[in-house]
Amino acid sequence: MKRRYKKSWTHFFQAIKGGRKLHDVREDDGYQIGDILVLQEFDNINGRYTGAEIEVEVTYITNRTVPCAFSSAVLSPGHCILSLKVLA
Question: What Pfam family is a match for this entry (predicted)?
């Protein structure tokens, strides 16, 4: 299990924090189930971090090694879909 700090644009950050977005598409840099991501809210309009952070746990990974029905057709090489659980 690794702890990783990741930039998250405000609209994605707020949706994940609010429990409406339970996944994230990312470059696949060796994520493992159980990794903890510290998402740092980034205001992409003003080009700066807001200081807000949330922790999420990676609960499932869809990629070319562990595909779903359409992932090989729609997922760019080198990318993955992370299923997330917000930690309290």
Answer: DUF3850
Q: What angle do CA 85, 87, 88 make, to 5 degrees?
A: 145
Nearest alpha carbon to residue 24 among 32, 16, 35: 16
Query: For residues 84 and 23, is the Cβ–Cβ distance under 8 A?
Result: yes
Domain count, the chain: 1
Strand order in the sheet with 36-43: 3-9, 36-43, 48-62, 79-86, 23-27
Both tokens of 44, joined, read 């992409």
Domain that holds residue 36: 3-86
* Domain CATH number, residue 67: 2.30.130.30
Q: Distance between CA 52 and CA 32 in Å, rounded?
A: 24
Write down the mean pLDDT value for the chain. 91
